[in-house]
Amino acid sequence: MTATERSEEWQGERGVFTGEMLQKYIGDLTLPHYYVSGPAAMVTAICKTLNEAGVDDDNIRTEEFPGY
C-alpha cells in the first residue's frame, strides 16, 4: 500500500519497497506470482526490485495506469 498522507492508524511497513522487506513475509521470493499495478515509473521500479531479488519476469504481471 502507498498513501499520500501519513496515518498513525497504519500498522504495516513504512519506507521504500525492497527485496529484504518482502522476504520478511514471503521467504522464497521466487515461488509466488506478483501483480503490480499503478503509474508506469512505480511499476518499472517495483519490477526492477523484484528482478534484483531473484524473481523471474514470468512470475510478474503488470498493468500501468498513466495520469496519476
Stretches where pLDDT is under 50 for at least 5 consecutive residues are: none
Overall form: flat
Tally of DSSP β-strands:
2
Write down the overall mean pLDDT.
88
Main sheet attributes: strand count, strand direction, barrel closure: 2 strands, parallel
Order of helices and strands: HEHE
Spatial separation of the terminal alpha carbons = 15 Å
Summarize the structure in short.
With 68 residues, the chain is of the alpha+beta class. Helix content is 31%, strand content 15%. It has helices spanning 19-26, 40-52; strands at residues 34-38, 60-64.
Notable features of this structure?
31% helix; 68 residues; alpha+beta; 2 helices; single chain; 15% strand
Q: Can you describe what's shown?
A:
This protein is of the alpha+beta class and 68 residues long. 31% of the residues lie in helices and 15% in strands. The two termini are 15 Å apart.
